[in-house]
Design brief:
Length: 156
């Protein structure tokens, strides 16, 4: 099977968009990721999948804790910035919880203790134990077939 065929099929699974953040040496580093899911309620675990070539991988592996910010439609520019698709020249606002940066005004922000790392093919699965959560109102930023989009939660 061709890599492109696999990617095209996986792109048909609509996901939300997150930015993963870590504090390293007093500096905030981040990357966009849509490979995110909840794993367990007891303990409260989430999972992110990071490409082994990503510069963030070593930072995440060595960090005690990291942040996950679930983006709103209005934060698409932040997704593109942290995916290195476009440079955002404006200021980026963070909330810092227990020394972990998360994006301000995201739908939800999780502070996670580094729980376990599992090699998986050309990626590493990083499990985080959720220690803190922040919530905001808004509409989610989605990703489907390589395109950003959104959904309307007011369609009841």
């Amino acid at each position: 099977m061709e890599d492109r065929t696999f990617r095209n099929a996986m792109g048909r699974f609509a996901t939300g968009v997150t930015v993963i953040t870590v504090n390293e040496g007093g500096e905030t580093h981040g990357m966009t990721a849509n490979a995110f899911m909840s794993v367990s309620l007891d303990p409260k675990l989430v999972l992110i999948s990071i490409d082994n070539r990503a510069t963030m991988l070593d930072k995440l592996k060595s960090a005690d804790s990291f942040g996950i910010s679930m983006l709103t439609e209005e934060q698409k520019h932040l997704s593109k910035h942290f995916a290195k698709q476009e440079v955002f020249e404006g200021g980026i606002s963070f909330d810092v919880i227990d020394e972990v940066p998360v994006l301000r005004d995201s739908l939800a922000a999780l502070v996670c203790k580094n729980y376990q790392q599992v090699p998986a093919g050309d990626h590493t699965l990083i499990l985080g134990q959720v220690e803190e959560i922040l919530f905001e109102e808004g509409e989610p930023l989605t990703f489907f077939k390589g395109q950003y989009g959104g959904i309307r939660s007011d369609a009841r």
